Amino acid sequence: MLLAVFSDIHGNRQAFEACLKVARARGAERFILLGDFVGYGADPEWVVDTAMELVVQGAVAVRGNHDQAVNSSAETMNAEAQIAIEWTRGRLDTAQRRFLAELPMLVEDGDRLFVHSEASSPRSWHYVRSTADAAKSLIATPAHVTFCGHIHRPAIYSMSVTAKMSGLVPKTDVSVPLLRGRQWLAVLGSVGQPRDGDPSAAFALFDTVSCQITYCRAPYDVETAANRIRENGLPHWLADRLSQGR
């Protein structure tokens, strides 16, 4: 089965639509949604409704820290992110907020694990910035492949049977075999707010038979997404950063 894996959509309708279109054109059979459906972007209602429809159709979805923040004042954000969360709260209806509140922190699916931040302490929202961070996540689960997001920059880490770690930054459209003799942590880039210098929306395709992962990019109408942010009175930096991929 070919899985399409998305993370950190952040209310960006234009980016999510572009990723879904490319993934379907490339034969994706099931969708995996790694959280942060809301925050930053100006179309949280559409994104959440789309996620709800995909889950009904068999998609896997987990909770991100921005999803958590919509229903919990205990989650603290930087000033601009907090403004966006408070604005988002006023846009979502009861069913949409309930959907976010009831999302699991992680999902185990055979020899795969799906989580927003990382597996050792999902509720702490740690970022995977290094092989040391990745090792903590991999040690916490027997899964062959763990998929996560949260940091908005794509990376792949692996751990050998002797606990030797390695890492790489995947190239777009170059398949990487996730060999059975190692554990793997596939860190997704962001659909709605990439921070790796490339403004194109990011996602990945994973073939469950060959165990190959391919990181993909989907160009989208960045200016429309940015204008939607400005028109709704959200901080302009949230719009400006989209064209910079940061």
Automatic annotation (TrEMBL):
<dbReference type="InterPro" id="IPR011152">
    <property type="entry name" value="Pesterase_MJ0912"/>
</dbReference>
<protein>
    <submittedName>
        <fullName>Metallophosphatase family protein</fullName>
    </submittedName>
</protein>
<feature type="domain" description="Calcineurin-like phosphoesterase">
    <location>
        <begin position="1"/>
        <end position="208"/>
    </location>
</feature>
<dbReference type="InterPro" id="IPR024654">
    <property type="entry name" value="Calcineurin-like_PHP_lpxH"/>
</dbReference>
<dbReference type="InterPro" id="IPR029052">
    <property type="entry name" value="Metallo-depent_PP-like"/>
</dbReference>
<dbReference type="GO" id="GO:0005737">
    <property type="term" value="C:cytoplasm"/>
</dbReference>
<dbReference type="InterPro" id="IPR050126">
    <property type="entry name" value="Ap4A_hydrolase"/>
</dbReference>
<dbReference type="GO" id="GO:0016791">
    <property type="term" value="F:phosphatase activity"/>
</dbReference>
<comment type="similarity">
    <text>Belongs to the metallophosphoesterase superfamily. YfcE family.</text>
</comment>
<dbReference type="Pfam" id="PF12850">
    <property type="entry name" value="Metallophos_2"/>
</dbReference>
